[in-house]
Specification:
The chain is an alpha/beta fold. 43% of the residues lie in helices and 11% in strands.
Length: 344
């Protein structure tokens, strides 16, 4: 139970479809995307009405208003969908270990207790690091179902020789990474070299072995929403288990119009093949309220199945700080300073 002013309430359990036992083995529980032969006619037929997409995204944020304890429930759900990430030049084994400790217990127990959600003991969906720190993260997360995701293939530019990028994937898998976030060669999209893009992602998929493949499109570099849609489709045909918006290093990263286009390509791929592919918006998502727009968009466009770690992730680091801060506000009615919710 929690008290805010004179109102006493309990976090809703059941019925909403949002708060379940929050963490399984994330994407490792999902069926793999086997891919299919490249269908260039399907790729060329992709059309995107930019103005309609932008209107839909704008109207969605205005129409979806979630308040009170229901907002707290969505924030708890968002916590379980985070790929908690550190991709800085000054990363160290100590920082990675501290990040993994936060991944194990992302929300303070006193906050969960005040919300009546202590028994949930949520964790984040995964921890994402450079290859150099995969073994450190695997060791720090030992005994938990939280997978380690490694960014590979010359992240963030993705311009290393193909053999080097493939070797990096294999090395990360050998070190214990269960998910691989790769970067596509954006010039292949910009020049319409769809066969080359398909071959590249297929090679990455093969190098991953049993590890799940998340393809980073770098949507801020692609120029048009049509190319975002076509690149999404080619990557799914090549066997990507997730399509991801951004590296977080581009000038423009995850936006709702881009997410809407990618979600609808996922829906079209599912309708034609019966295969569910995940979506990961990454970069620039720092405030808890932004997660409400993304989660409700996924629920509207793809259904509640896409509100689970197997099919949806937030690539973020500072987002968790604001989520925990907002949950404390839901429990106490007071906002606390960011420094009371450290990450690493």
């Amino acid at each position: 139970m929690a008290t805010r002013g004179r109102q006493t309430y309990r976090t809703p359990k059941g019925g909403s479809g949002l708060i379940e036992q929050p963490h399984t083995a994330a994407a490792q529980d999902a069926d793999r995307n086997p891919g299919l032969p490249l269908d260039l006619s399907w790729v060329r037929d992709v059309r995107v009405n930019r103005s309609a997409v932008e209107r839909r995204a704008q109207s969605h944020t205005r129409r979806r208003s979630i308040k009170g304890i229901w907002q707290a429930a969505w924030y708890l759900k968002a916590t379980t969908l985070i790929d908690l990430t550190t991709l800085s030049g000054d990363d160290s084994p100590g920082r990675v270990r501290r990040l993994c400790a936060k991944a194990r217990q992302p929300i303070r127990l006193d906050i969960l207790r005040a919300l009546g959600a202590e028994e949930m003991r949520p964790t984040v969906a995964a921890v994402c690091v450079y290859h150099r720190f995969v073994e450190d993260a695997v060791h720090a997360l030992e005994g938990t179902p939280i997978p380690v995701a490694a960014v590979s293939t010359g992240f963030p530019a993705g311009l290393s020789p193909l053999s080097t990028r493939l070797d990096e994937i294999r090395a990360s898998v050998a070190a214990g990474a269960r998910e691989i976030d790769i970067v596509i060669t954006r010039s292949l999209v910009l020049t319409g070299a769809w066969e080359a893009l398909y071959d590249e992602v297929s090679a990455f998929r093969e190098a991953c072995g049993a590890a799940h493949l998340k393809t980073i499109l770098g949507t801020g570099d692609l120029g048009t929403l049509r190319d975002v849609g076509r690149a999404s489709l080619v990557c799914m045909m090549a066997g990507a288990d997730f399509i991801k918006t951004s590296t977080g290093k581009e000038p423009v990263n995850a936006t709702l119009p881009v997410g809407l286009v990618m979600a609808r390509m996922i829906r079209e791929y599912r309708d034609r093949t019966g295969v569910a592919v995940g979506l990961k918006p990454a970069g620039g998502i720092r405030q808890a309220k932004e997660t409400l727009s993304w989660l409700s968009l996924m629920k509207d466009e793809l259904g509640p199945q896409w509100l689970q770690p197997a099919l949806f992730r937030f690539g973020a680091s500072s987002l968790l700080t604001d989520l925990e801060r907002q949950l404390e506000h839901a429990a106490t009615g007071r906002y606390s300073a960011d420094y009371r919710h450290p990450l690493a």
